[in-house]
Amino acid sequence: MGSMGLAIVDGARCKPRPGLKGACPACGRTAIARCGDLNRWHWAHAGRRHCDPWYENEGPWHREWKQRFPLDMHEIVHFDHVRGEKHVADIRRPDGLVIELQNSPMDIEEMESRERFYGEKMIWIVNAERFKSQIHLFDALPDPDADFVADLVFFPPHPLWVRNRASTEKGDGSGLMFYRRSETPPGSSMVAPHMGREVIDLVRRHYVGHHPCLWKKPREVWLRSTRLTFLDFGSDEMWVVRRYGPEKLFCLQRASKQALISSILDGKAPVVASSDVSFLDSEALKKRIFR
Ligand SMILES: [Zn+2]
User: Fold this and answer.
1) How many angstroms does the Cα of residue 89 sit away from the middle of ligand 1?
2) What are the tens digits of pLDDT across the range 223-264?
3) What total of structural domains would you count in the chain?
4) Please, which residues bridge with residue 30 across strands?
5) Which of 8, 143, 193, 207 is the most interior residue, by most CB within 10 Å?
6) Are residues 281 and 199 in the same domain?
């Protein structure tokens, strides 16, 4: 049975309380407050399933995220009058920004149809706890928008680096390798490799939290999403999925969870960068994800 965080009672959006009966905000069918001792209090949607096929049953991760936002932003029904479709957005700001909280795996088709439905004004927040052990981050990359970066092509991380390099990484970009477009004749497959330490000073000045990344058995869907996608590993820091440079090197960028939440509450564009962008060595990087 579909479980929800709120239902309509006497025209108002309500959390479950013992004995209450309400209506699903999307389809108007009956919702019954389930307030037992064993399970968290919730609303049970009439019928076997929730009326919105995109709706995920609320678990602790969902609830924790939702309670950071006022109730009148929760579970907002979003209409697309042209398509005649409606869906329930997890969080929707009055200006239309939709925050989709994704806890369980999702196929690419569904991701694409949700992005189409909600349009440009949406972000994803993904529960990444379950796959965090498959993610390995490497040394710092400079801000992709810095002028000097246009000439550099960083080598993608190799699986062997996980074993060989992780322990020697300083986190200042010196562990990476790159070649220069300006030194590479057009059409040539020969490149002259450079060591990251040649550009340490530039990386230092232009580091905004990017790290190349290897993802064993990646959830392909999150490499394909075209909206801002925040991975939540359960710590204070979140990581935004990024494609770096024209080669679209897969990397993650640090983001502050608190700054993201504040920006959403303040009606601003979602803040992506971390408030602290000091370098992290490989040990510190691991802690950011695994603590
Ligand atoms: Zn319904």
Assistant:
1) 13
2) 999 999 999 999 989 999 999 999 999 999 999 999 999 999
3) 2
4) 23
5) 207
6) yes
